[in-house]
Batch of 3 targets.
Target 1
Amino acid sequence: MNTTPSDFDAEVTVTLDVLPKRTTPPTPASLLALMNMAFSIPPQSTFELETTCSLPIDTKLLSLKPHQHDFGKGIDAWVVGGAHDGKLIYTTDEWEDPPVATFDPPLELKAGDQLRWVCRWQN
């Protein structure tokens, strides 16, 4: 984008890499967003919100990254039910640039297993 009143020449280079031919079709991936925005934090107080969501389908969890704003004080997440019941799969006290949790091999969860998370804030 040119935000100046003068013209200029620009050059764009695109490099594409070809993947080797697969013998099996790729597994589709998608984004799973878990949210609860129905809360209010009184001024000058701390607040902790716990939410549990059931997975509608069998899921292979590849990674997890939370999102909070600057009043956020941390997030913890667990699996509820199934083979990984009670397993803590994420914890952080960072709001600005929380680490990404990656699961290699993917964390295999079944339909009906749940993800429970607790978010903490200081208003």
Target 2
Amino acid sequence: MALLSSFISAGICSGRRFCFHGLYSRTLQLKQNAIILALNSGSSSLKFALFEIAELKQKNVSAKAIYRGQFSVIGGDSHWQVLNAGQQILIDQHKKFSNHGHALQTLLQWIQHTLPDATLLACGHRIVHGGERFSQAAVVSDDVIDYLESLTALAPNHQPAGLLGISALREAQPALPQVACFDTAFHHSRSALEQRFALPDRPELAGVKRYGFHGLSYDYIAAKLPQVLQQRADGKVVVAHLGHGASLCALHQRHSVATSMTFTPLDGLPMGKRCGAIDPAVVLYLLQQGLTADEISELLYFESGLLGLSGISDDAQILLASVAPAATFALDYFAHHCAQSIAAMAAAMNGIDDLVFTAGIGEHSAAIREKIARRCRWLGLQIDPQANLDNRSNISACDSKLQTWVIPTDEEVIIATQTLQIMQTHHRKTSC
């Protein structure tokens, strides 16, 4: 985060262009027309971004996103799309992709055809859980993969998908360096008071702690704050990453102080299909009622949240358009618990100066932002209705004690940043 924030706050870069200072020593020569691939793998999807790398004066390096896209419904009625830096759609096709390997082969062939003179330096992957071992990104090896596979039970609907992207690319490009970038790593700065559960110190409980997630998104927002909030950037900021998965993070001096997700991405806020925080005795009760562990997992991860509350959909926009009382209740429940958690984040920092909305719902749903803001008025938060409807960067009312912002996130930029950093570190170690 420090590296990325340093060049954003200095105003060196703008838009989606970022600079990486001093990343390459004389012994690691940057090849001409070099590119970095960033991948975010889902169970049936594959999001990607291509970054053009260029060496500037004084050994500075810049990375610019030149293409973004995704494969969706892999294994079914598949669809893939590619956009250029100007958001123009270059490819928009329905085509059968049998698996992630097939999708990656198609992507690599397209890259080779579109950028025949380019050199693919490395690929960075979003990996949700890095466990206790990884507080920063890591070069992928057999040992790293074995460890990450051991964490699958802690993120059952995320970890296998991320590892699937790694294995598919290993098969397609065995010699290509790959880097794992972890959602949990950003939160290692929190105190023991925040990371510990009130459990005894026993061997069988090793690794049972509050990890926190969405770290790549929070890392990007933390780096962006000086550009948007200016002198307020190092204050007490609560970031609301609200999408199909949702969490909050308390930032002070742009470091994680507290976060709503804990041991797994199931905890915290109610989400699209995930229940969020729940009394653990509910799980014991369901076991006593005869449900299996797999049935309970399916219930909590895929049948709850907005979908379970509404009985209609896990999509907030569909619920906003519905006149069904259950749809309204589901959204009010979501906003109510977001407001409660914002207060909890403020308590962890002994105050709050700014609130930032980001991710799909946070960036695009004025109605849900208003529902949450209304419940936070006691904190001195008031938003400007028109600014909120217009999705402006600052949606605060003139007399609001707190400033409220909408900042789009960009996890792929962080993946590219961390991939370059780790390549440099790995090269220095192996060159000694």
Target 3
Amino acid sequence: MSIAKVTEVIASSNKSFEDAVKAGVKRASKTLDNITSAWVSDQSVKVKDGKVSEYRVNLKITFILKD
């Protein structure tokens, strides 16, 4: 039987929500082993001078704990 844990990560990108998700998972994988999934629980944008300047996502990262 495996035990999984979920941790929350906030990531951002100047390009897109998809890029923010990829950046968040990539960064999380530097410190978390056995990542199995990521769920976008929230997304938002930062606006500057009437234009979107940053895309932000809140991710719930699931990973399997080692025995």
